[in-house]
Amino acid sequence: MSTGAVDDIQMVIITGMSGAGKTVAIQSFEDLGFFCVDNLPPTLLPKFLELMKDSGNKMNKVALVMDLRGREFFDHLFKALDDLAETSWVTPQILFLDADDSTLVRRYKETRRSHPLAKSGLPLEGIQLERELLEELKGRAQIIYNTSKLKPKELRERIITEFSVNKKSTFTVNVMSFGFKHGLPIDADLVFDVRFLPNPYYIEHMRPQTGLDEDVYNYVLKWNETNKFLEKVIELLSFMLPHYKREGKSQLVIAIGCTGGQHRSVALTEYIGNYFAKDYHTNITHRDIERRKEKSS
């Protein structure tokens, strides 16, 4: 039995809605070199921790899938999580996978599987019951992915990007542009509406361009109201981000929206994302920037 010091261990507990992608998730962690266990009962978690501690740092990256099994499951899981919070050598992250009801119903129909909680055999009945049971666990999750619009490949890429290095102490700021006419981002934590700013769309030579083009970017940022908005938003975020990080949140999604997600939101997302990149691990994405190309093709 090893009695040496144990380095901090990266542990990810994968849970969430049935059909939301837990199988893809555990396969992705295997690709990253994590020691993976599927369907570990929460009652065995203390014993598993002993094995980890006795392994002499050979199991320093661990991913565990814990599926819904009933009320007893939650009682044991919450107790295990509370016990983990008192350890100094492992800080678990809960990755909660979710999806819209309609998406989950479609996936069950495509696979011809029955939902484990659907007594009548109707998938929606089981999905709604499971969502109610998982509400508290979702509230305790540090990372939540909604996979409704993610293909398996995209979910895999997202996990690999997030967990490719030990990021348990890293706070990631995701800044995203979007167009309100295409709907609000379902995974946004903070949303800022910039439709009040002058719109380059109405300038003919800028209409086919985006906020990534220099003349559009400069046009958006030249207005006094734009600079006042950036001043206030950066001041607000500079106050909020350290508190989110201190609270234990591993990532924050900041969404900047204009009408179509092509001009104003793109330029401001670039500015804000680059501003905070000096202090935080930052990702910049533009959700709707390719929609015009898709429509014209």
UniProtKB/TrEMBL annotation:
Residues 9-166 form the RapZ-like N-terminal domain. The keyword Nucleotide-binding applies. Keywords: ATP-binding, GTP-binding, Nucleotide-binding. ATP binds at G16, M17, S18, G19, A20, G21, K22, T23. InterPro entries: P-loop_NTPase, RapZ-like, RapZ-like_N, RapZ_C. It comes from the Bacteria. It comes from Anoxybacillus andreesenii. This is UPF0042 nucleotide-binding protein. Pfam families: PapZ_C, RapZ-like_N. The keyword Repeat does not apply. GTP binds at D67, L68, R69, G70. Residues 172-290 form the RapZ C-terminal domain.
